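Batch job 17 of 40 flagged for manual review because the log was empty.
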Amino acid sequence: MSLGTGIAAEYEKWLKTPMEDPDLEEELQAVRGKEEEINDRFYQDLEFGTAGLRGVLGAGTNRMNIYTVRKATQGLSNYLLSHGVKTGVAIAYDSRIKSDLFAKESAAVLAANGIKAFVYPWLSPTPTLSFAVRYLKCDAGICITASHNPAKYNGYKAYGSDGCQITSEMAEGVQNEINSLDIFRDVKVMSFEEGCEKGLISYIDESVLDAFLDEVYKERILDEPCKGLKVVYTPLNGTGLVGVTRILKRIGVEDVVVVPEQEKPDGNFTTCPFPNPEIREALELGLALCEKTDPDLLLATDPDCDRCGIAVKQKDKYVLMTGNEVGVLLLDFIARSRKEQGKMPKDPIAVTTIVSTDMADAVAKAYGIRCVRVLTGFKYIGDQIALLEEKGEEDRFLLGFEESYGYLSGGYVRDKDAVDASMLICQMAWYYKQKGMTLADAMEALYETYGYYKNAVDNFGFEGEDGMITMGKIMDSLRGEAPREIAGYAVTGWSDYKESVCHDGESSTPIDLPKSNVLEYRLENGCKVIVRPSGTEPKIKVYYSAKGATAAESEALIQKMAESARGLLGV
């Protein structure tokens, strides 16, 4: 291939600029003459969206490095200064490669702009950042993490003063500021040490973590200690160890065995290339330890401890439970327990996403709970909590969950929280243990009551510049002409969340949600297929939803839809 003039010029500019990170200097020299590799590093700038930045570590404008982090922070600084800074910005970081460096660089740029930075002095779960923003009454927050992505990634999540990930309006404002900057010339810098000396950078006190755990503990459902519950736990070499083990001890779970190979922070994730509790491969060491120690539950949190996955014993083996199953189990457990205790609030509300299981609606209806559906992204669940808080009705909120293993049962943060989820799941496991049941038994009982709802998701990857173009063409094609059938079943209705319109037969109705690049197809047999480009990774996600009279029937329907997905996407 031949490099475009702009890409070649940008590469030369980086070559001529003395790199403060020697790893970047080495990489820039190593790709000399390798046009495809140079192009991939420079063909675009990492885009700053509602999820901030996320990308592969390395040299270039399309990589996560100290310069792209500094530039993003300068853009955020300009935005905050133009809107009036009152307190400052809270910063947290996880165990990923260079996370601590990026956190310090972010703090230093803020300080150079006269904005106070409050930095956690240790590796911290993402929910503790959301908490710190609210607790310290900050103007914004930054969390350096790439969540559950492979080790080669890192990211930069931005939060508003409400503790939610930033709105699309704020993201656009920050991106406009970023676009006006030269990555080297226009970024204000000072050393982290100088910022500390000037009082513009300070460390967050341990009392903030204590306050966070106090708020999590308030969300417990049972007051009885969970004595006799045995748990194997893996933080997947991330940030969850301290928070999860402390909260479990507080609710009386004394028998916790931590997977030794995944206990300590390690950004290389050598034991699990994909440190994602949704994926069995990440839990293999935990499952092996379960076979030796025979616990009631395997608990796993992702590197930034905002997602939580579990496996439970079913007969003579341990089975993984899906995010949808755990979400439904938690909703039923919370509602059941509140009802038994006489603590069910008036007009209770649960919140989930448009791609999560329809079983949540059935369970909510049985308890008189209003089930609110929002777009994918936990910030939209956080928005619903904020609306209740504005009316002084936050006690109506029972649970928010998404199929991708994110849960929250209180308003103390505005993001998913695996510390809270770990506590609730363990209390739920203990509750059913007293009845002689496992969580697998409890789930089967729900299926028998409400029907066998099954959900699955496929991920279709599209790497590089051509990949992004291909993704756009696929979505444009689907949007231009909706399929008439999927898996042999007629499409009876479809929704375009980007155009905010729902089509049912000959009629159309508006969708009262923010615009999002999502397409939903409803089939004649009650099944659904949803197509959505990921907001954080170069892939298209396809979600399948089915309900059958038996588990086998539902799984067969899922399989048929999955087989037709490649044809639907043309891949």
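Reviewer: the log was empty due to a logging misconfiguration, but the result itself is present. DSSP finds 18 helices and 23 strands in the chain. Unflagging and moving on to job 18.
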